[in-house]
Amino acid sequence: ATPTALIVGTGRGAQLGVLIKGPEVLESTRRIDTVVLDKTGTVTTGAMELLGVHPADGVDADEALRLAGAVEHGSEHPIARAIVAAATAKLGELPGVAEFGNHAGLGVQGVVTDVVDGPENSPQNGTVIAHAVLVGRPALLAEHGIELPPSLVTAREQAERDGRTAIVVSWDGVARAVLVVADAIRPTSAEAVRRLRELGLTPMLLTGDNQAAARAVGARIGIGPDAIIADVLPEDKVAVVQRLRSEGRVVAMVGDGVNDAAALATADLGLAMGTGTDVAIEASDLTLVRGDLLATVDAIRLARRTLTTIR
Ligand code: ADP
Ligand code: MG
C-alpha cells in the first residue's frame, strides 16, 4: 500500500506545478545530491532568435537564409524554428525539401530543388537546380569533410566569444555562411541555482552547445567552468550522467529536448520542462508544468518534507 504522506505529496506537487508519475518517485528524490541542468530550453527559454547572417565571399546572404530555412523546416529544434521564422519573415514561402535528414544534436540536411523561372522560351527557363544542403554546428560540417573559409572561422569565433551559437550553412560540399543565434536566460534560473545550493545540492550545466556559449550562460546563473560540460553529443549526455552516478553521486537531470530523453531516463530522477518535447516528458519522473526551474527546488523540498512526515 502507498503511504498516505506520499499521496499527499503527489497532490501537493500538482499544486506547485509539478506532475509526479508515481508516489515512489518522491522516495528517490530525497537522496539527490547533484542536479544536472540542460542549457537550451531548460536554463534558457529555448526561444532562439536569428541575430545575423555572415555570408562567405561571393555568397548571397538571402540565398543562404533561404536554403537553410527550407531544410530546417523539417526540424523542431529551437534553432531550426528561429531560422525558419527569420527566413519566412524576410523571404516569404520557402522551397520544398527532398531527402530530409536530422542529425540529433548536430543539425539537418536535405536537397532543395528550384525550377528556374526565366524569360519564356529562354534556354534557362524550366531548368531544375538541386542543392544538397547541410546546416548545423561546425562539428557536423567537419564530419562531412567541409572546412570553413577564414572569414567564416572569424564569424564563428566572434559569435561564440559573445556567448552565442554559430550555425554553418553549406551546400554542394562548400561552407557558404554562418548564422548567429541566441536565446534568453529564463528569469528565475539564477535564483533556482542559488536555492539548489542552499539545499546542499551541486548544480551542473550540461549542453550540446559550444564551450564559450555555455560559460557565458553559466556565469550569469552562478555555475562556474568546473561544473560545466559542453560540446556534448546527445548520445554522450547519457554517458555523462552514468559517469556522475558511477562516481557515487545521486543525480537529478532537468531537460526539455529529444536529445535529453535518454539521459533523463538514466538519471536517478528525471525532470522534464513542461514546455519541452513529449519524448522528454515521457522519459522523466517529474514534469515541471510551467517550465520554471524554481519548480525543481519545490519538488526536491516537497519530497524531503513528505518523507520526513512518514518517517
Ligand atoms: P542543448 O544540449 O543545449 O539543448 P542540443 O543538444 O539540442 O543543445 O544541440 C546542440 C547543438 O547542435 C546546438 O547548439 C546546435 O549547434 C546544433 N544543432 C542541433 N540541432 C540543430 C538544427 N536543427 N539546426 C542547426 N543546428 C543544430
Ligand atoms: Mg535542451
Question: If you had to describe this structure to a student in words, what would you say it looks like?
Answer:
This protein is α/β, with parallel strands linked by helices and 311 residues long. It folds into 2 domains: 4-45 and 185-310, Rossmann fold (3-Layer(aba) Sandwich), CATH 3.40.50.1000; 49-182, Calcium-transporting ATPase, cytoplasmic domain N. It is 42% helix and 24% strand. It has 13 helices and 13 strands. Helix 12 links the parallel strand 12 (269-273) and strand 13. Helix 4 crosses helix 5. It comes from Pseudonocardia bannensis. Keywords: ATP-binding, Cell membrane, Membrane, Metal-binding, Nucleotide-binding, Translocase, Transmembrane, Transmembrane helix. Belongs to the cation transport ATPase (P-type) (TC 3.A.3) family. Type IB subfamily.
